[in-house]
Amino acid sequence: MAHMHSPSNRPLSALPRRLLPWTLPLACATLALLGGCAAPVAPGSRAAGAPPAAVPAPAPQQGAATPQPAPEDAAQVAEEKSFKAWLDAFGREALAAGIRPATVQQVLLTARLQPRVIELDRAQPEFTRTPWAYLDSAVSPQRIAAGRAKRIEYRVPLEVAEARYGVPASIITAIWGMESNYGGNFGSFRAVDALATLAFEGRRRDWARSELLAALRIVDQGDIAADRMVGSWAGAMGNTQFLPSVFLAHAVDADGDGRRDIWGSIPDVAASTANYLASAGWRRGEPWGVEVRLPAGFDHSRAELSVRQPASQWAADGVQSMDGQPLPAFDAASVIEPAGARGPAFLVGPNFRAILRYNNSINYALGVGLLARQIEGAPGVAASWPRDLQPLSRSQVLQLQNGLNQRGFAAGTADGVFGPSTRAGLRQFQRSLGLEADGYPTTELLERLQQGAAAQPAAAAASTAR
Q: Which of 323, 324, 320 has the alpha carbon at shortest distance from 335?
């Protein structure tokens, strides 16, 4: 259909509200939330939408000063005004991108600025969780029990999705549990509000603008009403926390009602999740990985996802499964040690990397795999976690990175985030001390690094004195 464009000197918020007949159901649903649609009136009550009886304002006292808004109130008013202007400008872009005028008017232009979203986006947790602390929560006995119950309750849609896409029902169930606790926690933000706030705030402007446009398109296509399109502060939505762009690309209408509903339809949830993993490279019939025992003298620098070789080669190198069974026949397998040389080790294959496409965190992918395995009745991790090790805080990681770089052990950009570059630098430092080079950060290693850094100036001063 032809799109309605406003004159260049006229804000979209001033667009006429006369809508074509096919827009009226959506208009009434939205305006009812805003108190703008007619509703039944109880006998003797004021008509809906009618203004209340006027209450005379008190006469101003002679000589009384006009109250001035507090500075913080003035700043808030200014920010709200700026946000409305931003919405108006983005609305013109949405119209040009093919979003219907009714959607722009009723959904985008009614978006509300959410200061809490900005707070959460800027927040950086000081302490990172250890793998065992993360898994204690993610793969708790309660979550395993609930997963088994959901697996039985929704056996049919889960197994239909498995047959169609090749992703096991237990993996689909585990992702559902990890993402929203089986629908118990979608998040409480309207996706349009959250994404408009993030796009306006600007730290991740381009990404948020793209996701906001995708969210508008979802409403435009009739998959979900804007007030039901709720999720996290970052815009992830529904039972399995799809971003709007992921929804557009991978959501599936499995129950045949003409809508892709990842909020209320478990068949749609199961099929959409499986479809996403299949597109991410999931291989039918292969496991995600297996817990392994590493041989004495194993080179722990090889325990990286970037180091890949056939499982048969890992077996030739002395890697064995914990139960003595042959290793899965992966053609490109990696060994990972989430807690370093003192913790459990796993041999993971292509399906583990497919889970990482859902959430690029080794702890997350391991949580999904272990939860799925225990939903099926298999045991958990056999080896013990090094629970005596304390996690480094973000500021301590920053100190570690700076110390490594200063002493010539290249650790990459000092940003307080422990990644592959920092792990490589830490391994170099461990080798210089004659230690097992597993690259796992500990407070003891940080202290030794700092002691060595303090000793260098003293040694240099002594050399100069001689």
A: 320
User: Of 377, 346, 369, which is closest to residue 168 (Cα–Cα)?
Assistant: 369
- Output phi, psi for 109, to 5 deg: -75, -5
Percentage of the chain with pLDDT > 70? Answer: 82
Long-range contacts of 95-101 (CB under 8 A, 24+ apart): 95/3, 95/4, 95/5, 95/12, 97/213, 98/3, 99/213, 99/216, 99/217, 99/220, 100/1, 100/3, 100/23, 100/220, 101/3, 101/4, 101/15
Q: Which helix (H) or strand (E) holds 196?
A: helix 191-201
pLDDT value of residue 466: 53
Cα-based distances in Å from 326 to 292, 329, 349: 11, 8, 14
Identify the DSSP state of 366.
Answer: H
Containing H/E element for 291?
Answer: strand 289-293
Residue type for 426, please?
L
Average pLDDT over residues 124-137: 88
* Element at 230 (helix H, strand E): strand 230-231
Q: Which of 380, 379, 372, 377 is nearest to 172 (CA)?
A: 372
pLDDT tens by residue, 265-290: 999 999 999 999 999 999 999 999 99
**Contact between residue 330 and residue 349 where contact means Cβ atoms under 8 Å apart:** yes
pTM of the entire structure?
A: 0.81
| Separation CA 50–CA 456 (nearest Å) | 80
Q: Are 250 and 242 in contact (CB under 8 A)?
A: yes
How do strand 189-190 and strand 320-321 relate by DSSP bridges?
unpaired
For residue 177, the Cα-to-chain-centroid distance in whole angstroms is: 14
pLDDT of residue 393 exceeding 60: yes
**Tokens 């298999």 sit at which residue?**
378
pLDDT band at residue 452, thresholds of 50, 70 and 90? Answer: confident
Q: What is the mean pLDDT of the chain?
A: 86
User: Does position 240 have pLDDT exceeding 80, yes or no?
Assistant: yes
**Under a CB-based contact definition with an 8 Å cutoff, are residues 293 and 322 in contact?**
yes
pLDDT at 25: 34
Q: Is the pLDDT of residue 361 over 80?
A: yes
The total of other beta-carbon atoms located within 10 Å of residue 368's CB is: 28
The pLDDT of residue 463 is above 60: no
Q: E-strand spans in 155-218?
A: 189-190
Which residue, 289, 439, 314, 281, is CA-closest to 365? 289
